[in-house]
Amino acid sequence: MSNDNPRSIRSYRVEILIALLVIVVVGPLVHEYRAQQASRYLLTAAIWDNGTIQLDEYAAVDPPILGVDRAVKDGHTYSDKAPLQPVLAVPFYAVYRAIGGEPAIERRIEENLGLWWVTFWMATVPAALLAALMFREGRRIDGDAALPATIGLFGGSILLPFAALLFGHALAALFVFAAFLTLKSATTPLRLAGAGALCGAAVTAEYTAGVALVALTAYAVWRARSRVVWFLAGGVPFAVGLGWYHTMAFGTPLTHPYRYSAFTDVTSEARGFFSSFSRFRPEHVFEVFFDGRGFLFAAPMVIVGLIGLVQLVRTRSPHRSSAVLALAMFVGVLLIPVFWSNPWGGDSPGPRYMTPALPFLVIGAAAIWRRSRIWGRAAAAIGGFTMGLATLTDPLLSDEARVSIGSWIGLAADGEIVPTVFTIAVGPVGWLVHVALIAFVGWRLVLVGRKRQPILQPPG
To answer: What CA–CA distance (Å, rounded) separates 344 from 418?
Structure first.
């Protein structure tokens, strides 16, 4: 097969190596059992081990293995998270149990390999695929800038730590970004329906991703005109499935679990639909950008991407519509931390509910990279250092703490480093294996990335 064939495997070498780099960097990390992860992992376990979506058995364990991230209705306990990720994880959990893995009812806070295994497939692999798609889109802007822009943005933002944690953000961001790429090239009803299905999957994986889909739906209307009905139809199966899950657990299709969540207080009656949100807090905008874990200090590549998007919008670039969408999505999801009780969404290395909008910033980062190479490299280095340390220590520091790079440096200095499957297996020498894998994949990526990457023509 010719190397010039766009369908040949060689034409995707950089994408494959980027995905592998994400996998070898964060894939081996075994983070401890926390409330958010428990809510998702235990739903997966309940489905496979007990054939139910109720978590009553796990809620009764003393000491508890299920934290505040749960919903309680009519005396029964459920996960308060969107169900798609736990459902998709069932086959992987089943394999783990089949080879002798301990059931989730066993309370193992540290070195929990079952949690690690599910996290690998439900967070790390989706994040790796997302990074590959980000590079693919960056190539449409600037072939030579796509690789540093992608690595800098992914490794220098909260995309990196959430690739190592069992949250829904990486999976939802993958679905949202894949929906955008599908829409850009949607020339048939089937592709429009596929984009709609990806949007439906995003909300079913992470409820707050629905805010990001407002801009994406407007984009679909603009591109598809009267054919947008196919886009909407694609999301129907996921809407039906989500409604069925809500009905089974909470009584009606529109009663989402946050209305019964135990995060603030167990309630016998459903809270208001928007009870998860607080009053308008403009000071949260300042914190999102200028706090110690805000974008400017902890992830300045986000600022680089935003500046690039603004410049694209002000020009007659063929990528102007994509830049407008990316900016609209960023502003839209910014409303979540502004109206949330805290800007981080709880314990987090940054404003985690903004994750679905971050991959779109690669458009701006690639566009501005050549003209701002020094600033781009500096931003990537700062973000990579901060988010790298957060990922290797404890990214889920308290939402009430004054978190900064110093917090993670202090943890690292105290030896609070996350174990890996290698160190669990062979002790400290396992770090050599981990570092060797990263070095090898990184070296291969540098060699392949040095070759000039052709600019992909915008689809459609």
So the answer is: 22
Cis peptide before 63 (omega within 30 of 0): yes
d(C-alpha 43, C-alpha 70), whole Å: 10
**Tens-digit pLDDT profile for the chain (460 aa)?**
345 455 567 788 999 999 999 999 999 999 999 989 999 999 999 999 999 999 999 998 888 888 888 998 888 999 999 999 999 999 999 999 999 999 999 989 999 999 999 999 999 999 999 999 999 999 999 999 999 999 999 999 999 999 999 999 999 999 999 999 999 988 899 999 999 999 999 999 999 999 999 999 999 999 888 899 999 999 999 999 999 999 999 999 988 888 887 766 666 566 565 566 667 888 999 999 999 999 999 999 999 999 999 999 998 888 999 999 999 999 999 999 999 888 998 899 999 999 999 999 999 999 999 999 999 999 999 999 999 999 999 999 988 888 889 999 999 999 999 999 999 999 999 999 999 999 999 999 999 987 767 777 655 4
Query: What single-letter amino acid sits at 411?
Result: L
Supply the DSSP string of 206-221, one letter for each residue: -TTHHHHHHHHHHHHH
For 356-400, where are the alpha helices, taking DSSP H only? 361-368, 373-392
Rounded to 10 deg, the angle between the 228-250 and 209-224 helix axes is 160
Contact 362, 305 (CB under 8 A): yes
Whether the CB-CB separation of 350 and 369 falls below 8 Å is answered with no
Tokens 């002790």 sit on residue: 427
Whether the model clears a pTM of 0.90, i.e. scores above it, the answer is yes
